[in-house]
Automatic annotation (TrEMBL):
<dbReference type="InterPro" id="IPR050188">
    <property type="entry name" value="RluA_PseudoU_synthase"/>
</dbReference>
<dbReference type="Pfam" id="PF00849">
    <property type="entry name" value="PseudoU_synth_2"/>
</dbReference>
<keyword id="KW-0413">Isomerase</keyword>
<dbReference type="InterPro" id="IPR006224">
    <property type="entry name" value="PsdUridine_synth_RluA-like_CS"/>
</dbReference>
<dbReference type="InterPro" id="IPR006145">
    <property type="entry name" value="PsdUridine_synth_RsuA/RluA"/>
</dbReference>
<dbReference type="InterPro" id="IPR020103">
    <property type="entry name" value="PsdUridine_synth_cat_dom_sf"/>
</dbReference>
<dbReference type="InterPro" id="IPR006225">
    <property type="entry name" value="PsdUridine_synth_RluC/D"/>
</dbReference>
<protein>
    <recommendedName>
        <fullName>Pseudouridine synthase</fullName>
        <ecNumber>5.4.99.-</ecNumber>
    </recommendedName>
</protein>
<feature type="domain" description="Pseudouridine synthase RsuA/RluA-like">
    <location>
        <begin position="92"/>
        <end position="241"/>
    </location>
</feature>
<keyword id="KW-0694">RNA-binding</keyword>
<comment type="similarity">
    <text>Belongs to the pseudouridine synthase RluA family.</text>
</comment>
<comment type="function">
    <text>Responsible for synthesis of pseudouridine from uracil.</text>
</comment>
Length: 318
């Protein structure tokens, strides 16, 4: 196995002739200064036409710029044969459909049984060596599309896309009740609940948070909602749906108590049939950092939410 990942290549156009290599790296290849500093320390980190050069040199039309990153591994993560669903994979990206109930990355008290443990074992079995770099997170009980970068260049690029708002993340939720409007926006700042630090709440002094929603299907006991995040606050969808009176079915942390006792009983009956909040990351679209291609990934509705949806379509539970 090579000490380096496959090189990322950039060809100099006639319009770019005479530019500094440093400018090409920063402005054309969009490589951060931090990563450039790392690449300069490796023997084949930055190459021009197959030769290691200073980044202060000027480039010519037709020149071939290559960057090579040293292979890294996740030695701090114990490989475990944990199955997971792969939606897409190439030399640079791994996209999975995360199951509900699994934690993404080892944390204090959860060093094994995570998605990271399973992915590292999968790569090891293939004789491959990558560091586990999730570009974003999903709550333990939220299922759906999750993107893992295989090198720091890809991680940086997708993170910047997320900051710029060009990564399109869409979710499907099954909620109690129905929104007053067919579609709308929930613009409610979010911060920690001072009485319960692990719980978030909408508060005027919170951090800006915007969720777009659309009512996709409605029944007597609940609704199916399509959601798009315009920001990425912790528990944002769960907090915002509760805020407008449509808490997620099965959500034990965020609840909106109905005015009528009969409705409250129906809420509890539905919640008892759902072992987690009914939230699924159903779609994600981004630009591939290396090929420039726009990619969209879909994760089908998981069995537990599909069963709840069928139950709601029968207009209630027994």
């Amino acid at each position: 196995m090579s000490l380096y990942y496959e090189p990322i290549v950039y060809m100099i156009s006639p319009e770019e002739e005479g530019m500094l290599l440093k400018t090409i790296l920063q402005k054309r290849m969009n490589i951060s200064r931090k990563l450039i500093s790392r690449l300069k320390l490796t023997e084949q980190g930055i190459m021009l036409n197959g030769i290691r050069v200073y980044i202060s040199v000027k480039v010519k039309a037709g020149d071939r710029v290559e960057i090579r990153m040293e292979r890294e591994s996740s030695d701090d993560i114990l490989p475990e044969p944990i199955p997971f669903d792969i939606l897409y994979e190439d030399e640079h990206l791994l996209v999975v459909n995360k199951a509900a109930g699994i934690i993404v990355h080892p944390t204090h008290g959860h060093y094994t049984g995570t998605l990271a443990n399973g992915v590292v074992h999968y790569w090891q079995a293939k004789g491959e060596k990558f560091r586990f770099r999730p570009v974003h997170r999903l709550d333990q009980e939220t299922s759906g599309v999750l993107v893992v970068a295989k090198n720091p260049y890809v991680h940086q690029h997708i993170s910047e896309q997320m900051i710029a708002g060009t990564v399109d993340k869409r979710y499907t939720a099954l909620v109690h009740g129905r929104p007053e409007q067919q579609e709308g926006r929930v613009d409610g700042p979010i911060d920690r609940n001072p009485d319960h630090p692990h719980v978030r709440m909408v508060t005027p002094d919170g951090y800006p948070a915007l969720t777009l929603y659309k009512l996709e299907e409605a029944w007597s006991e609940g609704s199916r909602i399509g959601l798009k995040l315009e920001s990425g606050r912790t528990h944002q969808i769960r907090v915002h749906m509760t805020y407008i009176g449509c808490p997620l079915i099965g959500d034990k942390m965020y609840r909106a108590i109905p005015d009528e006792a009969a409705h409250q009983e129906r809420y509890e009956q539905l919640d008892a049939r759902m072992s987690r909040q009914a939230l699924h990351a159903s779609e994600l679209s981004l630009m591939h950092p290396v090929t420039g291609e726009r990619l969209t990934f879909y994760a089908p509705l998981p069995d537990d939410m599909a069963q709840m949806q069928r139950l709601l379509r029968t207009q209630g539970c027994t």
